[in-house]
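re the bet — no i am not wrong, look at it urself. input seq straight from the record:
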Amino acid sequence: MKTLTPTKEATSFEEFGFADTILQGIKEAGFETPSPVQSLAIPALLEGQDATVMAATGTGKTAAYGLPSLDYLVRHPKETMLVMAPTRELAGQISDELYRLGKFANIRSIAIYGGRSYGRQTDIISRGVNVIVATPGRLLDLLDSGRLKFSPSIVVLDEADEMLDMGFLDDIQRIMDYVPDRAQTLLFSATLPAPIQGLIKKFQKNPVMLKAAGAGSASLQIDQSFYVVGEEERDLAALRLIESMNPEKCIVFCRTREETDRLTSTLLGRSFPAAPLHGDIDQSRREKTIRDFRQGRVKILVATDVAARGLDVADVSHVFNYHIPGNSESYIHRIGRTGRAGRSGEAITFVAPGEMRRLRMLKQAVGDIKPASIPTLRDLRRREVERMTGLVNEAEGTKEAVRQVERLVEAGLTAEEIAVRALSLLIQKDAPTGPEKIGWEVDRINEFLSRPAPRSSSGGRGFPSRGGSRGPSRGSYDRGSGKGRKFESGDSGRRRS
């Protein structure tokens, strides 16, 4: 398979020769110049080639496959397109974006996923759509029951590695049996594990491999750091860093539902606008939580890995890993939710002393992750005093405040005494609390890492495979699908063994 990497980037979308109606949609969507992955993928896709594209979420990949596909549908109005996505949220986002890009060409799209009426979805399809965006479980239900019959000319597997990690491999293979051999097959993935390579060999014809700059690794725009903390210090560490960093919008990835609820309660108790996202949350509350997070009413989303899959929010400033992820692919996916669209981002990982071997392997797999020390309580209080002093210095006095000061002066207080007491009250209100020190200092971390790495008792090498995460934890894991587990992909709700 031929691999292409970026050379010369296109400077305008007009260079691709899109139909006028597609260019009109591009302009209204606010796109000005193609992103690197768009410059790389669009020419090959316009030629009708099967392609595997390595690109992270947030790089413009929806338009990278959407624009050439929509252009094809404009020129061949009787043809259709299928996009498979791992979760209902991502399916809805893709459908909305393809509609916006193709609306001047009268392109009609629908998102198909579990939790919605079969009848309504099949009714819309029967009236005619050009683009179907679906989660694998619901799509397979419709195909197997005969309620959906179609012959797409273009098939896209978006976030393919995420779909496989969620247990959709068998579903995808069965869906592809319904797809005609002539269809152009496009596969988009941030990483390229072995099962993806198996799909490529089975379903793609002489594909070209397109690798966007930085694909398969962490973005250079993300500042990565780790903090060594004891198991019992994780909540304290998260609270201390959030108080210190004051993130605009952040996601905290937890391992279990119990951790998610407990940390959310801790943050709410300190007046941080936080909300949990895990498998026990029903769909309506889930949708409201994600909507509130996008719109800024919720600043901190505390989520399990499974529950947050497919979540695409452009302006996440910080990502916290409450535990070190089980493999490098999960780490790249998690932290890839920040540092998007030219923005910088921060990725913070908590590592217990017993997880240092796994940290070494993660650093080998993804590059430099810098050690850092959690601010002391004294440091945090000093910053809070400086912040409050600055606010007082910039504030304008109100008439009511003037009247109250005059009353206090009449009562015998000096202006200096009033100012000192007022500022003291401000500083004491919601003042940082907790132990003076949390976790290891950088010097201790560096000294530990400078020692020779101990050999694994099993003799194995490399980073743990998916699902191989070990270490102390509390509560039940939020796995997603599987025998005896609650299926949580946001799909049809079937259990799979």
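see?? Confidence is low (pLDDT under 50) at residues 457-477, 479-497. told u. also The chain has three domains: 2-211, 222-374+441-449, 377-428. so pay up
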